[in-house]
Write a structure and sequence with these properties.
Blueprint (H helix, E strand, L loop, with lengths): L9 E6 L2 E6 H4 L7 E4 L5 E3 L4 E2 L4 E4 L13 E2 L4 E13 L5 E11 L4 E2 L8 E6 L5 E12 L4 E9 L7 E13 L2
Length: 180
């Protein structure tokens, strides 16, 4: 070939004597149903209150799977198993002494399933004494979804002696792709 085929160009293959046509788009190996979004603004989270992590910007989302304008939901386009990753970078700006645990979890369909309930407990401790401390909590997992299911990321700061006030999100990301 003198040039890269167009996505709609077809190839003819023989499968045990049966001829089959296949679009170049199918065989070129590009992941479909992939997305990566992140939070671009400072967000305050309150102790012992579960809140949706606002992921308001896209790195890429060619299939329009993630609503970054208000609900912050990923909607499954097709039945399959998907790989997810999430990360939150946070800090306490209260300049007080204390300890916090932060649970970051992915919730499916408003609570029918979540990544923590599936054995993926993801938390981090933040210790501080009159300073600003930064920490990161991450989650990675795969799970089966059907078309129309949705997922959101939530964060719950808590602990036996939590730092009072709010916690500021300094970086967050969420993404994934369809495995099969």
């Amino acid at each position: 070939l003198d040039e890269t085929p167009a996505d709609t160009d077809e190839f003819v293959l023989s499968d045990a004597g049966t001829l089959k046509r296949m679009d170049y788009d199918y065989i070129k190996g590009v992941h479909k149903n992939a997305w990566s979004v992140y939070g671009s603004t400072t967000t305050n989270f309150t102790n012992n209150v579960e809140a949706v992590v606002p992921l308001d910007s896209e790195r890429f989302d060619p299939d329009g799977l993630f609503d970054h304008t208000g609900t912050y939901k990923w909607v499954c386009p097709a039945d399959g198993t998907y790989f997810f990753y999430g990360q939150l970078i946070f800090a306490s700006l209260n300049n007080t002494t204390g300890c916090i645990e932060v649970n970051l979890k992915c919730i499916k369909n408003g609570g029918a399933w979540n990544s923590i309930g599936d054995g993926n407990r993801n938390w981090a401790s933040l210790l501080g004494e009159d300073h600003i401390y930064y920490n990161t909590v991450e989650s990675h997992f795969s799970h089966t979804f059907v078309a129309g299911d949705y997922a959101i990321w939530t964060l719950t700061p808590s602990g036996a002696n939590p730092i009072s006030g709010t916690f500021v999100n300094y970086g967050s990301s969420f993404g994934g792709w369809r495995l099969f």
